[in-house]
Amino acid sequence: MYYEPQCYEGRENEVVSSSVNLAMAPQVTAVTEPVTLGEGPHWDSEEQALYFVSIFDKSIHKYDPATKKHTRSVLDDQVTFIIPVEGKRHHFVVGLKRRIAEVIWDGQDGTAKVVRTVAEVDKHCPDNRLNDAKTDPRGRLFAGTMGHEYEPGKFHLKKGSLYRIDPDGKTKCLADKVDISNGLCWDIKEKAFYYADSFEYAIRRYDYDIETGDISNPRFVFNYKDHGLEGIVDGMTIDSDGNLWVANFDGHQVLKIDPKKGKLLEKIRIPALQVTSVIFGGSNLDILYVTSASMNRGVEQKPPCGSTFQVTGLGVKGLPSVNVKLN
Which residues are the active-site residues? Predict the structure, then answer.
């Protein structure tokens, strides 16, 4: 199925499908102001709020759907993800360049403070930076890195890695020679970990041991070229049926994929070229939040590019985001 949204007069920020009955079609609505490079969305079930970052703006963000309030706080370096710390209200781990740091933030504008460095990665490649990161079902932090972007859209390749940071702060490298580390999610039932190195234009599946956090036996379960897709694999999440929802950067869309069959199930058009990441949220975990970017790489990306969007009416539910455990 392919849903092609259109804007309707008087609803400039709301996008709905024209290819099927509108009552049944997904609706896409911009819910935040645009940022330069929105990334790393995390739904906090306790706060009933969405957290995300804008990497090049060096800022962390909170969106409260109940009040529609969007707040932000600027840190001292490129910030690549934000995840609440289990059992410590208003404490988060964030990626700051190559550092994983603990931040305290009450969610108000301009009040965040870095309190300590938890770990530092890729010391052998000082120009690298962290990119996507999430917690596994046991609260361990999985964080990936990427090489330096020396020109817009051009990177030092095979410089990145994927790390696991355990609650005691110990760091283990799980994969190396990565271009851009992206798209992390887990399926406990299938004992699977899904991951993307963006310039492989594919999705990897690893065997996953929930007791140890170890991954093994990587293989490809979905390739862009097999489905005629353009752009690259960016962030992803998983629904309760075990299907993946994948941000298609430079593709104007989110993809729904069955990783067990390697089948493309749906395409959801997003009114932003640079779709960066996705997460399920809302009280029923049935709203898909989609971050995007507005980077000018020779073509101006006008609003609503760079906004975070909500997609409703998908008929599926996600899994709860897991807070990070830190000793």
Answer: 234
